[in-house]
Design a protein that fits this description.
Structural class: alpha/beta
Largest sheet: 8 strands, parallel, barrel
CATH topology of the largest domain: TIM Barrel
Number of domains: 2
CATH class of the largest domain: Alpha Beta
Shape: elongated
Strand content: 5-15%
CATH architecture of the largest domain: Alpha-Beta Barrel
Bound molecules: 3-methyl-2-oxobutanoic acid
Number of strands: 8
Length: 277
C-alpha cells in the first residue's frame, strides 16, 4: 500500500488502538528519502543534528538557521512522512511571541509540527502556540538543551519528588494543547504511568517499552555515530565500520592504479584520437 502522511487525529487514535508509532531523526535529503520509503510514520529533524552532523559537543550552539537549512532538505525528501521541526535553544525561551515567530518559520519551511523542551514552565508558551494554530510536541525527562541544570545526561524521575514533577509536567503540556509528548530517559514504570494518564500519545527514548511509540537518533540506529552509545540505543547496523572499509579500499585502489578500471572510464573514437595526436 502507498505510504500516506499520518494526521494528528490518526496519531491520537493509534494511542487507543495501536499499532505503536515509529519516529526517527533525519537531517538531510538522502536520509529523508530512505525514511519516506520505510514504514516509519514520523521524522524528527532534531537539534541532535548539532552533535550528529555539525560536530558540536551538545545542542545549545544550534541555531534557527541551522534547523531551517536541514528541515528544508528533509521536507523535500519525505513528502509522505509527518515531519516535526525541533525548536533549538534560544528560539522560544523569551516567551510566546518569540516561540510563535520561530515556529511559524518552521511551518513555512515545511514542518508539520514543532517540538520544544520543558514542562510546566513552557506550558503557557505551548498554549499560546496551539491557540495560534501551531501543532506542538512536548519533550520532558532528560532535556538535552538544559542538561547542565539537570546535572548532566542522567535518567530523570527516579525519586518521588522528581517523578511527581514529571507527571505534572506531562499533564500540564497535555492541558496546554500539545498533541504528543516525548519522554527521554525516564524509568520504564514511570513512563508507563505517565502514558496511562494521558490522552495524547507518548513517544519514548530511553523510556522503556510502554510508551505509545519510540524514537531513536538515525545515526545511533545505523551505527554512524560512536563517540558514545547510550544504554537505550540499539544499533541495527554498523555503517561506520562499513564506510571506513570502503574508504580504505578506495584509497588503496587509487594508489595501486586499480581504480578507475576500464568499466569506469570513457572511450573516444580512435580516429579522433589519432588526428589529435
Ligand atoms: O534532538 C533530538 O534528536 C531529540 C530526540 C532525542 C528526541 O530531541
Amino acid at each position: 500500500m502507498e505510504k500516506r502522511k499520518l494526521t494528528v487525529p490518526e496519531m491520537l487514535e493509534r494511542k487507543q488502538r495501536g499499532p505503536k508509532l515509529r519516529m526517527i531523526t533525519a537531517y538531510d535529503y538522502p536520509t529523508a528519502l530512505m525514511v519516506d520509503r520505510s514504514p516509519i510514520e514520523l521524522i524528527l529533524v532534531g537539534d541532535s543534528l548539532g552533535m550528529a552532523v555539525l560536530g558540536y559537543a551538545g545542542t545549545v550552539p544550534v541555531t534557527m538557521e541551522d534547523m531551517l537549512h536541514h528541515l528544508r532538505a528533509v521536507v523535500r525528501g519525505a513528502p509522505n512522512t509527518f515531519v516535526i521541526g525541533d525548536m533549538p535553544f534560544g528560539s522560544y525561551n523569551e516567551g510566546p511571541a518569540q516561540a510563535i515567530r520561530n515556529a511559524n518559520r518552521m511551518l513555512k519551511a515545511g514542518a508539520d509540527a514543532v517540538k520544544l523542551e520543558g514542562g510546566m514552565v513552557v506550558a503557557p508558551t505551548v498554549k499560546a502556540m496551539v491557540d495560534g494554530g501551531i501543532p506542538v510536541v512536548g519533550h520532558i525527562g532528560l532535556t538535552p538543551q538544559t542538561a547542565t541544570m539537570l546535572g548532566g545526561f542522567k535518567v530523570q524521575g527516579k525519586d518521588l519528588a522528581s517523578a511527581r514533577r514529571l507527571l505534572e509536567d506531562a499533564l500540564a503540556l497535555e492541558e496546554a494543547g500539545a498533541f504528543m509528548l516525548i519522554l527521554e530517559c525516564v524509568p520504564a514504570p514511570l513512563a508507563r504511568l505517565i502514558t496511562s494518564k494521558l490522552r495524547i500519545p507518548t513517544i519514548g527514548i530511553g523510556a522503556g517499552p510502554h510508551c505509545d511509540g519510540q524514537v531513536l537518533v538515525f545515526h545511533d540506529l545505523v551505527g554512524l555515530f560512536d563517540r558514545f552509545v547510550p544504554k537505550f540505543v540499539k544499533q541495527y547496523a554498523f555503517l561506520q565500520k562499513e564506510i571506513s572499509r570502503a574508504l580504505a579500499e578506495y584509497a588503496r585502489e587509487v594508489e595501486e592504479g586499480v581504480f578507475p578500471g576500464p568499466e569506469h572510464s570513457f572511450s573516444i573514437n580512435e580516429e579522433v584520437l589519432k588526428e589529435l595526436e
